[in-house]
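Proteins fold. Shown next:

***
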Amino acid sequence: MKYLKYMTIILALAAIWACGGGDDSGDEPVISKDRLDVPPNLGELLGDGQTVELPIQANCAWTITKDAEWLSVTPSTGSGSQRVSVSAGKNNTGKQRMAVLTVKGGGSALTRMVTVTQAKGSDAEPTNPTDPTDPTEPTNPENPDTEKEPTADDNLPPS
C-alpha cells in the first residue's frame, strides 16, 4: 500500500515535469506587456486650418511619423499616456487631402496607424468649376455661360 502511494507521487511529478515544468528553453512566444492605443482616425480637419489633439494611451515609449509635409505633430516622441497636437495649415489644393500618422511603441513592437483628412480651403479653386451645383460658381440657370442677374437681396449699392 505504501509502495503504491509513493509510485503515484513519483508518476505525478514526472508528468508535471514532462508538461513544461522543466527548463525554460525560450521556445514559447513572448507576449509583450506593452500597451499602445490610439484612435484609427482624427476625423476631417477644417480646410482653413485646424489643430486637434490625438489621445495616446500607452505604458511604453512611442514615436510618431507622418507621411505628409502639410501636417505637424507636437511632440513626435514621448512615453506613457498623453495628448499630442496635430496641426494642418490652410488647404489651398482645391480638393480634400489625406495623410497617415504611424505611431510605434514598445521598441517598435507595436504599430498603430491614424488617418487624417482635411477639407479643401474655403477660397480654394473649386474642384469642378463647371458644376452648376457648386455654390462657388454664380451662374444664371437659363444661360449657364452668363453671370447671375443681381437681385434686391444681393445688397448692392444704389445705382
